[in-house]
Amino acid sequence: MEETKIPQRLDVSSLRGIMLPQSTYENWETIWSFQAQPDDLFIATYPKAGTTWMQEIVDMIIHGGDKEICQRAPIHLRQPFIEMKRPFMPSGLELAEAMLPPRILKTHLPVQLVPPSIWEKDCKIIYVARNAKDNLVSYYHFQQMNRILPHPGTWPEYFEKFLAGEVPWGPWHDHVKGWWEAREHQRILYLFYEDMKKDPAHEIQKVMQFLEKDLGEKVIEEIVGHTSFQAMKENPMTNYCSHPCFDHSISPFIRKGTVGDWKTHFTVAQNERFDEDYRKTMKGTSLTFCNEL
Ligand code: A3P
After folding, report:
1. What spacing in Å lies between the alpha carbon of 115 and ligand 1's midpoint?
2. Full-prediction pTM beyond 0.90?
3. How far apart are CA 121 and CA 95, in angstroms?
4. Is the CB of residue 187 less than 8 Å from the CB of residue 125?
């Protein structure tokens, strides 16, 4: 009888103060020496900020709105996750190296851990940020259903871990601020999940412009439809249903997709504590977020 391969939860280790999955940590030298190509396009995010949504939008734009082409493979094979090495699967770097240009690549790395070659080659990068409260809620559910990340513990425990930045890929505030500052001297299009919810066509236009594509109103409408929450939830090429690391019986990968879900999780006391911490960690930045629509 064939053995069922179910991945086990991995540890995390701290690299320059940032918690990373053990496999990323152990493979760090290879990741740091990653060789970018000038026409690589990166989608960079803090985990759970809307990465997959942007990935599908970009794939649709690159392929002129052709839905059939976007069905060619699950999203994690179409757009490798460069720092990820999962059990029983080729690593993100191996997938990237086997790809023909132009490549679309995903990363959750904070700006200070981005492999230098990506800056040297002046690659274009799309960064998507999401308000911290919804990002925290989404991450909590994700760490429950993700078989290879550490278990999040209870909601109150996870809440404290997130505030302390003791979660994979480190503190949310440093991540969003670091990339916000980097956009001043790099080719970075910085977008917000909440704007994508409010007016997806408008944000898709911005991505198109950044990618120097002009597809017209009708194709934009098609892209909006194809990348809607419901469409992506039902699409096996975007919903990660066949991914061995995710247990959808605990929580679906494409879970709720709303702005303001934090209100169904935060207690009044947690909200006050969160706001107080937020004022300190976000002090002095011009970066602002919208917590409800
Ligand atoms: P929730 O857990 O709040 O539902 P990432 O791709 O970075 O891991 O982000 C996952 C989050 O984006 C999940 O948030 C998921 O539901 C949401 N998401 C994915 N596709 C979406 C879409 N088309 N529209 C809105 N939200 C989407």
Report:
1. 26
2. yes
3. 20
4. yes
